[in-house]
Structure formats: structure tokens, C-alpha cells
Amino acid sequence: VMKKIISALLFLFIFSCQPIEKMESVVFDNNQFSKFDILSRSVEINEIFEKKISHPFIGHTLLISPSQRIVNWINSNFKAIGNENIFTVSILDASLSQTEFENIEAKNFDEKIHYKYELFYLIELNLLDDSRNLIATTLVEASRSTTSGRYISIQEKENIINDLIFQTLTDLSDETKTLLTKYLEGFII
């Protein structure tokens, strides 16, 4: 009887020490996105939107904000090649929010309260001549959302949010390629 109790306790101890499934860390490598060679003498970045620092917005709490991710992407992937025209990218929105919701389908022992994370990107691309007259323009937007349980580790939350930012940035890059090809066809190489 004592051997069975010890065996059962040993089994429970070993079972409880099993590793928890972990989400891989997201690597932000802008080389994974499309490159854009623009016939212009410069690429200017304007952050027009006001960063929201009140509930439910959480972008300002991140080490690298969603808007800084766009700036990094533009600096890495947009190249001015020419000696006339000005290409501007205006960041109109890069808001990340976190809201609580009740999971009505939760079973008895599952978490009832979950978090929903929503990211919205909106940028305006303009090609101007040297007198700053508009040659071509387009708006590009991308948005995604995801959820998580309420009781997760800080690292897990960071990974979920970074994955959301990366996936939305991928969408933004793809949509930018489509729209630049359509509206700035003669100015993209």
C-alpha cells in the first residue's frame, strides 16, 4: 500500500513538472517585408496622430510602440532614388487597445474573463513635386485583433502583442505594395 502511495505521489510530482507550451518570441526583421524604391530625392515621415495614453489604449506601455514599428519599417524598406520629388509617409493612426470581455462559452474551471487586443494602422502615402504640389496619394490601413486569458505571464502577454503587431505590419506592407503599384506605378522601381 505504501509503495502505491509513493508511486502515485511520484507520478503526480513528475506530471506537475511538465513544461508549459510557450509561444516563440517574435523577431522584427524588416527584411521580411517588401522593399520600395521610390523615384524621389527624400522619404519623409510624419507622425500626425496623437498617442493615446488613457484606458483602453496600451501602445505607450510597450518598449517599442506600434508607431515606432512603422517608423522602423519605413526607414528600412523605403529608399529614395532620384533627384526630384518628395515622398512622405504620414502615420495617421497606430493605436493598440486592450479590453476585457466575458467568455460566455467557458467551462466550469476555465477563465471567464479574457482580454481582447486590437491594433489599427492607418498611413497616408504622398508623392509631391519639388514645389510640394501633390502628384499622387493613397491611404493604407490594416487592423487585426487577438485574445488571451486574463491570467498569463508578462512574457506571454508581450509575445501575444508582438505577434499581433508583426502580423498587422505584414498586412500593412502587403497592402502598401498593392496600392503603390496601383497609384504610383511610374514612380516605383
Highlighted features:
189 residues, two-stranded parallel sheet, 3 helices, four-stranded mixed beta sheet, alpha/beta, 6 strands
Order of helices and strands: HEEHEEEEH
Task: Compute the CA-based radius of gyration.
Answer: 23 Å
How is the largest sheet built, in terms of strand order? 2-4-5-6
Q: Total number of β-strand segments? A: 6
Fraction in helix: 25-40%
Shape: elongated
Cα separation of the termini: 79 Å
The averaged pLDDT comes out at 87
Can you summarize the main beta sheet? Answer: 4 strands, mixed
Number of helices in the DSSP assignment:
3
* Uncertain stretches: 15-21
Q: Strand fraction band?
A: 25-35%
Find the structural class using helix and strand composition: alpha/beta
Structure description:
The chain has 189 residues and is an alpha/beta fold. The chain is built from three helices and six strands. The chain has helices at 2-16, 66-77, 154-183; strands at 36-38, 42-47, 78-80, 86-102, 113-128, 134-149. Strands 2-4-5-6 form a four-stranded mixed sheet, covered by helices on one side. The protein is elongated. The model is unreliable at 15-21 (pLDDT under 50).
